[in-house]
Write a structure and sequence with these properties.
The chain is mostly helical. Helices cover 52% and strands 11% of the residues. It has a domain at 1-54. The model has no long low-confidence stretch (mean pLDDT 81).
């Protein structure tokens, strides 16, 4: 009788109860698996972050850095700046 009811598109109470029970069972399982995936992603990111922090420094600072000295004949010609094309801010 149940097979005939399904063939006609009807749903038995037992089949409905089985479907609802399985859905209630798998919903928390899916939620936990999503949390596990999120945890694994966070751990992977933390591992990469710590690996970058543990990397030795490659650039060494000089004990006494020398200041930059501009050449004496430094000049600017035809230099300008504007936030909008019709309102210049700096003209040279």
């Amino acid at each position: 009788m149940a097979a005939g009811a399904r063939a006609r598109g009807e749903l038995t109470v037992g089949l409905l109860a089985a479907f609802l029970t399985t859905e209630q069972f798998f919903r928390p399982v899916r939620a936990r698996s999503g949390l596990y995936t999120l945890d694994q992603s966070a751990l992977s990111g933390a591992e990469l972050h710590l690996r970058v922090l543990d990397e030795p420094r490659r650039a060494r600072e000089r004990p006494t850095p020398s200041p930059w000295r501009a050449p004496r004949d430094l000049s600017f010609e035809d230099v300008g700046f504007a936030y909008a094309s019709d309102r210049p801010v700096l003209l040279g």
